Amino acid sequence: MAKVKLNLIRQARLPDLSKSATPDSVMEEEEAAQEWDPLFTSEIHAAEALAADMDPWIVFDSRKTPRSEFDAWLENNRPSRVHRYGSEEGVGNVGWISVRGTNFCNSIGDLEGLQESWEKHLDSGRPVTFQAVRELALNHGVLSGKWLMHLEPGFKLDHAWESVARAALDGKINSAKVSTYDPSGSSRQVICVYNQNFTDESEVVRLDSIIRATGVKCPLNYKPDVYTYLGIYRNNRWKLCPTIYESKFDLECVPRRSHIVNKVTNLEVT
């Protein structure tokens, strides 16, 4: 999969940083040093995210690992303590920390076909819009997506990650991952919580409810994986917003609930 993603980054006309990424940020939506074309920093975000994907991950797979080992695994791999680019104890690079649920399904679709269709679309000169990318995703079965939350390293991050990770362990969530700590880069880390179909709005809303039920109150943004594969990040050359839903938790509402807005249509969903 990493090889296909690397080709997608190249076909999207992005710089290849997979072998030379500087330790600025591994996060999907976070800041990076402005090089190459300062107008399109999404190109750096994409390359850094790819570099994180290609580095080793720390994974707890609920389908294979005894549940009794989870608490110790979680304590030993708190995201605010695991360093992105290794530690003095001799630990090497770590791209992500991930928990896969008992119902984990790694169906990523036809990435090679997506790559070919994307290149044809760019060469045609047709506008790059959400609807166009959605059609490509449907045609090639690249339908997964994720809610994103960005938190400062420390207790709140570790607590939110533990809550989400336990939901994955219990089979309520397909999978989740969290970026590792980079003291020289962005001050925030990102937690990604996945579902199978970004085109199914009810499924996206249901996943938000599951996340909120774990106690997470911070703002969330939802991003289709097809955007990630095609290098569509913040400040991209096509002026697409890199996320398509926004969720804010209303503490004053009775009962408390999320207010979700579709950022493509600018309409309230809940």
From TrEMBL:
<dbReference type="InterPro" id="IPR015034">
    <property type="entry name" value="Bles03"/>
</dbReference>
<protein>
    <submittedName>
        <fullName>Uncharacterized protein</fullName>
    </submittedName>
</protein>
<dbReference type="InterPro" id="IPR023398">
    <property type="entry name" value="TIF_eIF4e-like"/>
</dbReference>
<dbReference type="Pfam" id="PF08939">
    <property type="entry name" value="Bles03"/>
</dbReference>
<comment type="similarity">
    <text>Belongs to the UPF0696 family.</text>
</comment>
